[in-house]
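Review form for a predicted model. The reviewer records the input and the model, then writes brief findings.
Reviewer: anonymous (R2)
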Amino acid sequence: MTDSLRIGVIGCGGIAQIMHLPHLVETPGLTLHSLADTNPTVLNAVGDRYGVTARYATWREMLADDALEAVVICHGGSHRDSVIDALDAGKHVLVEKPLAWNVRETREVAAAAARSDRVVQVGYHKLHDPAFAYAKRELAAFDDLAYVDCTVLHAADEFNRAPYAVIVGSGQTSQFNYDLPEWDAIQSGTARGFSSGPIAALSDEGLGDHAGNVSLQVAFGLLTVSVIHQIYMLFGLLGDPVRVMHTEVWRQGMSISALIEFPGQVHCTLNWHNLPYLNDYRETYSLAGNRQRLRLEFPGPYYRNLPTPVVLQGGAGELSWEKRVTVSYREAFHNELLAFARAIRTGQRAPGTVDDALRHAQFIEDILRAVP
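Model under review:
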């Protein structure tokens, strides 16, 4: 390994341009070595922006470069094939969620990882938010914990991405307008994306008796690409769940609510709703005991360096108090990248292992098999 770790980025879309590429080029000891994208216009425009000459139409071409040491995988869809190919080529892997699309695919990635001595880190960036570590320490001091609520009111991604100059398929720089389609068009477009082609077949593997149900195919897709953030956060805060007690899915898969039991008879409600038109993304984790309460309030996911407030409540007798803590302005995506580099150099593995991802994939299937 060289002093500066040579990293390639596979997939040059929004999350690469907004988060991964800026942090990579700004971090000493890391070198943006190469880019891969199936859209040549985007590939060349992003390559020109960052002065990268090693550009590839496929990840397989990129992986043949012996000088490349690691990859950040952030193309769309399942990442099963690209992760396995990268490991077989001897590259370290930081992969955006989902690691793979269902339990079977994730097991296949796990088998490839077990054959390799390379680092595989799943992009669970919220676990690298300083507020998460702070909240976990505070939670350990609770006398008891009775109830947890995790609720996401998900505004359209266009709002969160609007401040950034993202190069889109035409090669133009788009700063995302706010003229969203009508709700029927959003629902039908989401359904087409998740209920047709290879993705639908992969979802149906996990849906069991519910295979072919379009609403649940949409829910499976949203759990896999979006609600996975809340899933790994709940695992991180509370441990592995005991069981999914009940799940409801409505609004053609755009609203999901599950009642989950965690260790210690802690019951948790997980609620996720696609509510695109109000530019006010909300993601809250409320944890309540007899004497103490804690609340995490995550900002929109694309805003760099916005802190995640932690709100603590306590009291004695008639007195009650509330404390709002700003833990840090350090960006979770950057911390995630630093953890990846540290794992490669020192062997200190970060959160987001393949085993973690396998448990989360099984949990997604458990959630949807609890639908009546």
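Findings: The chain has two domains: 5-124+334-352, 127-164+181-331+360-369.
Further findings: The mean pLDDT is 96.
Recommendation: see findings above.
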